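TL;DR need structure tokens for one chain.
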Amino acid sequence: MSYLSSLQHPIVKHLVKLRQNRAYRYEQKTVLISGIKLIRELSQKFSFKNILVEKTYRPLFSYKAQQTSTTSLAILEKITGLEAPEPIAAEICMPIFQDVKSSKRLLILDRVVDPGNLGTLLRTALAFDWDVFLVEGCVDLYNDKALRAAKGATFFLKLAQGDLIDLQNLLKKGSFHIYAADAKGDKIKKILSEKPIALALGNESHGLSPFIIQHAKKIAIPIKKPVESLNVAIAGAIFMYLLQGSKNE
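>> reply
TL;DR here they are.
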């Protein structure tokens, strides 16, 4: 096990670049994650390319890694971009996108640009058993803030990604009942459906793409004045909960 003492070490520079550079992440097909709980959870299903631990820390769980190194907290700060990092970080392969046309519940995220919102929505989707389609224009799925907010959900969800044409083809094949979150829509009630459901959530500032609005039933959450709207992650959680019921469940 090697000790990484320099910010100029190739592994350190590589991990920092993974966090900071989207194009480099996709070129390498790996991402940087950090935190004891997250890495422990992922270690039960996945192996890692690199594990980096603070020199005095001894993990109380087993894991598989191509390479394990020790280092200082100062270098972990640089790698993770956090002022007070936990004593372990890892490099892990990106999950593979999957076919979601047979999904029973599909969350469509249309140009969601805040990484915290994206990560929270992914975590909620996993909790309520929704698959996810990310429309081109969303913040990067592997942005470090999005990964932290998702708390591992990114690696356990059934995910797909594409442009609006891909989405159009998917919705035709899947025979979904499509619902769009819209402040002017009908007030939502708990919905029981035997057909697959798709829920579309839009950009925080500009809402949903016209194509989605044209093909969806608009629904809204009744809220009390003077509140005009809810954060997309909060609204998404409410919608996913109310739409998750099925006559067959």
